[in-house]
């Protein structure tokens, strides 16, 4: 058919987002209302607060996306909505709004997987086919390695057995008394720290398995910051230099493991293309380490552009791929909070 303009909604966690995307993947507008301030004092996302904020913010965000794109709702040919994975209450707000738009505008509805959308952000930027590839999604909720067989077929080949990488950044930031969300703050103070001041664990790095674990690393930072439980000897005071050094050494350990597992996955599956998405992909040290690895090992690297790294609705452009394949959702669909394999 001749569908041309898509309205996309994303409300899976604590970002309320809407975008207008053309069929050639041009993102005409990409509006995000962050709830970070509401959750900051809790040091993490509080699900009920997130759901309520989506109810408040969603329609103004859609209105803004439509206005910025210079269109009206009547111009919309297709509705895309993230239905998995995420917080159940948050997802339900977006899905209910999306169904209402689809029913009242009488246009098709497409269900989008948030994690796949994070990887598809690379495809939007590249403006050419990138599949098959290995994909790594590193965010506050996920550290997942995928075998991306095509634009719509993703097989999970590795994931974290405890904390996600972004979650580890956020928890370590809390330990170092930095604001939430912690990733950007760790990166900022790490710039003035010594990445080899502390020799932290690189869990699973020498093993073939493609899984991650960051909980031991987080605890190691905690012990360096606050002392080991029961130990007589107290650590030095947590002054600025020590905070910077702990942040830099922690960041280096995470980056080493993430880059190491990507290289192993490329090798194991004999692929030459690597896609990186999710909030942690905004990290400058991670990006430069990936670029070095790509040069050294001669693979084709695609990191999600910064505006598509943290949660947004522009990356829901993957819905056009589903549309081309006739994969439409019916108005009875429900959300799926858990990770889909
Ligand atoms: O993709 P995202 O917006 O939301 C989830 O789906 O989780 O990712 C948010 C996560 C947070 O944990 C945040 O601390 C982390 O991405 N993050 C960063 C940076 N910017 C955001 N981590 C490290 N360095 C950054 N510059
Ligand atoms: Zn995300």
TrEMBL record:
<dbReference type="GO" id="GO:0061711">
    <property type="term" value="F:tRNA N(6)-L-threonylcarbamoyladenine synthase activity"/>
</dbReference>
<feature type="binding site">
    <location>
        <position position="311"/>
    </location>
    <ligand>
        <name>Fe cation</name>
    </ligand>
</feature>
<keyword id="KW-0808">Transferase</keyword>
<feature type="domain" description="Gcp-like">
    <location>
        <begin position="27"/>
        <end position="317"/>
    </location>
</feature>
<keyword id="KW-0963">Cytoplasm</keyword>
<feature type="binding site">
    <location>
        <begin position="137"/>
        <end position="141"/>
    </location>
    <ligand>
        <name>substrate</name>
    </ligand>
</feature>
<dbReference type="InterPro" id="IPR017861">
    <property type="entry name" value="KAE1/TsaD"/>
</dbReference>
<comment type="similarity">
    <text>Belongs to the KAE1 / TsaD family.</text>
</comment>
<dbReference type="GO" id="GO:0005737">
    <property type="term" value="C:cytoplasm"/>
</dbReference>
<keyword id="KW-0012">Acyltransferase</keyword>
<protein>
    <recommendedName>
        <fullName>tRNA N6-adenosine threonylcarbamoyltransferase</fullName>
        <ecNumber>2.3.1.234</ecNumber>
    </recommendedName>
</protein>
<feature type="binding site">
    <location>
        <position position="183"/>
    </location>
    <ligand>
        <name>substrate</name>
    </ligand>
</feature>
<feature type="binding site">
    <location>
        <position position="283"/>
    </location>
    <ligand>
        <name>substrate</name>
    </ligand>
</feature>
<dbReference type="GO" id="GO:0002949">
    <property type="term" value="P:tRNA threonylcarbamoyladenosine modification"/>
</dbReference>
<dbReference type="InterPro" id="IPR017860">
    <property type="entry name" value="Peptidase_M22_CS"/>
</dbReference>
<feature type="binding site">
    <location>
        <position position="187"/>
    </location>
    <ligand>
        <name>substrate</name>
    </ligand>
</feature>
<dbReference type="Pfam" id="PF00814">
    <property type="entry name" value="TsaD"/>
</dbReference>
<feature type="binding site">
    <location>
        <position position="114"/>
    </location>
    <ligand>
        <name>Fe cation</name>
    </ligand>
</feature>
<feature type="binding site">
    <location>
        <position position="170"/>
    </location>
    <ligand>
        <name>substrate</name>
    </ligand>
</feature>
<keyword id="KW-0479">Metal-binding</keyword>
<dbReference type="InterPro" id="IPR000905">
    <property type="entry name" value="Gcp-like_dom"/>
</dbReference>
<dbReference type="InterPro" id="IPR022450">
    <property type="entry name" value="TsaD"/>
</dbReference>
<dbReference type="GO" id="GO:0005506">
    <property type="term" value="F:iron ion binding"/>
</dbReference>
<dbReference type="InterPro" id="IPR043129">
    <property type="entry name" value="ATPase_NBD"/>
</dbReference>
<keyword id="KW-0408">Iron</keyword>
<comment type="function">
    <text>Required for the formation of a threonylcarbamoyl group on adenosine at position 37 (t(6)A37) in tRNAs that read codons beginning with adenine. Is involved in the transfer of the threonylcarbamoyl moiety of threonylcarbamoyl-AMP (TC-AMP) to the N6 group of A37, together with TsaE and TsaB. TsaD likely plays a direct catalytic role in this reaction.</text>
</comment>
<keyword id="KW-0819">tRNA processing</keyword>
<feature type="binding site">
    <location>
        <position position="118"/>
    </location>
    <ligand>
        <name>Fe cation</name>
    </ligand>
</feature>
């Amino acid at each position: 058919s001749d569908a041309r303009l898509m309205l996309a909604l994303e409300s899976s966690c604590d970002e309320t987002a809407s975008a207008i995307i053309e069929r050639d993947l041009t993102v005409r507008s990409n509006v995000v209302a962050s709830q970070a301030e509401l959750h900051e004092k809790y040091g993490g996302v509080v699900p009920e607060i997130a759901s309520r904020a989506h109810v408040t913010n969603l329609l103004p965000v859609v209105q803004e996306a439509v206005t910025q794109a210079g269109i009206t709702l009547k111009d919309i040919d297709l509705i895309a909505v993230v239905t998995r994975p995420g917080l159940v209450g948050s997802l339900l707000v977006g899905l209910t709004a999306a169904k209402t738009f689809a029913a009242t505008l009488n246009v098709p509805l497409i269900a989008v997987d948030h994690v796949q959308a994070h990887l598809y952000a690379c495809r939007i930027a590249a403006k050419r086919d990138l599949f098959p590839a290995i994909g790594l999604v590193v965010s506050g909720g996920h550290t997942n390695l995928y075998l991306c067989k095509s634009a719509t077929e993703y097989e999970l080949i590795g994931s974290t057995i405890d904390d996600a990488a972004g979650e580890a950044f956020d928890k370590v930031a809390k330990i170092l008394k930095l604001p939430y969300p912690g990733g950007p703050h760790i990166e900022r103070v790490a710039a003035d720290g010594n990445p080899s001041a502390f020799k932290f664990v690189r869990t699973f790095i020498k093993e073939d398995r493609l899984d991650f674990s960051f909980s031991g690393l987080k605890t190691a930072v905690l012990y360096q910051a606050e002392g080991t439980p029961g130990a007589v000897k107290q650590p030095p005071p947590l002054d600025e230099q020590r905070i910077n050094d702990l942040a830099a050494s922690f960041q280096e350990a995470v980056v080493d493991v993430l880059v190491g597992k990507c290289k192993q996955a490329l090798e194991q599956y004999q692929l030459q293309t690597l896609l990186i998405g999710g909030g942690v992909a905004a990290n400058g040290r991670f990006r430069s380490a990936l670029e070095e690895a790509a040069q050294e090992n001669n693979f084709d690297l695609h990191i999600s552009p910064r505006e598509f790294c943290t949660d947004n609705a522009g990356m829901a452009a993957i819905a056009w791929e589903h549309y081309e394949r006739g994969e439409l959702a019916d108005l009875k669909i429900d959300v799926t909070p858990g990770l889909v394999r």
